[in-house]
Amino acid sequence: MPPLLLTNIGQLLTLQGSPGPRRGRELDEIGLIEDAAVLCHGGRIVSVGKRRDAQRDSWLKSHKKKVREVDCRGGVMLPGFVDSHTHPAFTAPRLIDFEKRIGGATYEQIAEAGGGIRSSVEEVRKLSRASLVEKIAPALKEMAAQGTTTVEAKSGYGLSVEAEIKSLEAIRDAARRWAGTVVPTLLGAHVVPREFLDRRDEYVRAVCEEMIPQAARRQLARFVDVFVDRGAFSVEETRRIFAAARKHGMGTRAHVCQLAPEKIEALLEFEPASLDHMDHVSEDEVRLLAACDTVGTLVPGANYFLGLGRYPPARKLIDAGVAVALATDYNPGSSPTTNMQFVLSLACTQMKMSPAEAIVAATINGAHALRLADGKGSLEPGKDADMAVFGVRDYREIAYWFGSNLCGMTVIAGEIRELSSAAPV
């Protein structure tokens, strides 16, 4: 692979800054360079800076014939989006749930009537691993076309040892067909499946003693996730699951405070990489989060699709010093979108984050939520050459225009992987 020089970049957002997750005023620091160039080689970033400096570089001059030079035509470049919360291992949309919700049913009422998460389980259990791969792979390709280069992918619609392991295997197989980075997560503790509703403890034991050991032994997942909320799992059950994850060398993360407040202090003992949703977080919980490196990942696509009328309290979290990330929560029931650009728009219009804060939350803080910030989330020498170029003149336009794809080019590991009609202007 020859060196790649991306030049004539109107605005380059490097996201260079402090080594830890960004919080408070740091969320506005985008490391903007105008009229810029980026040199990549061997899948890594070699240099970033002004275009005139690249033109004067002695190494580039002497190796000009070996370098592939690409004119970005004045567009905006930023690190590839890091979508740190997705559920791609499903088979079909939940259209009955969709219509019931339009008719006024709530998320919990739909679940109680047999819809919701459990309604996706039967088909996932029936589907072959190869068929499930064919459901996941197109979603990853679609994400890359929209500027996403790193994705966290959860299981969670199998809810049996066999089906959860199959889902993780399908995520692994789909990841092998994609140039980007996939971080697999075991979400066996999504909800209690129907056959265990009267035997909850047995199901928790199956997660701890069968799912987690198998996933760890076969290196099928880096994290264990739990849905901690009303109608899902309790804090005490989650602590048992987190203890099993720690025993087997796996990281932890959790869905929490989506439907109701929860006490998160008992979970922070396990140093989760991320706590996600956070819609009903209390002042005490906010203070606890601000004092640690656990990222609060906000997924406003779910609030939009569920028609909740309220969104995660981004301003309260940011102003208190919590490190926040943004993610799509791509799933068939509450957030059927792969588009991080749309999430940025929701963050700005509905949660009053600035465009700069939203971009930081969707890149470097997403990388911290996956414990990948050493290589992902910012454009700096030595980091992975994952980036996206948008066909706009000002980075604020990425959140301003919504409902379309503004990404004209996606570079993954120093290679151009996706080109679209939204080429830089």
| Biggest β-sheet strands, sense, barrel | 8 strands, mixed
CATH architecture of the largest domain: Alpha-Beta Barrel
Strand content: 15-25%
Identify the overall geometry.
globular
Count of domains: 2
The span between the termini is 27 Å
> What is the averaged pLDDT score?
95
Can you tell me the residue ranges where pLDDT is under 50 for at least 5 consecutive residues? none
CATH topology of the largest domain: TIM Barrel
Residue share in helices? 25-40%
Class from secondary-structure proportions: alpha/beta
Extended strand count: 16
- The CATH homologous superfamily of the largest domain corresponds to Metal-dependent hydrolases
Give the class-level CATH name of the largest domain.
Alpha Beta
CA gyration radius, whole angstroms: 21 Å
How many helix segments?
17
Please characterize this protein's 3D structure.
By secondary structure, the protein is α/β, with parallel strands linked by helices. The chain is 36% helix and 22% strand. The protein has two domains: 121 residues, Urease, subunit C, domain 1 (Roll), CATH 2.30.40.10; 289 residues, TIM Barrel (Alpha-Beta Barrel). The strands form two sheets. Strands 1, 2, 3, 4, 5, 14, 15 and 16 form an eight-stranded mixed beta sheet that branches. It has an eight-stranded parallel beta sheet with strand order 6-7-8-9-10-11-12-13. Helix 7 links the parallel strand 7 and strand 8. The two termini are 27 Å apart. The model has no long low-confidence stretch (mean pLDDT 95).
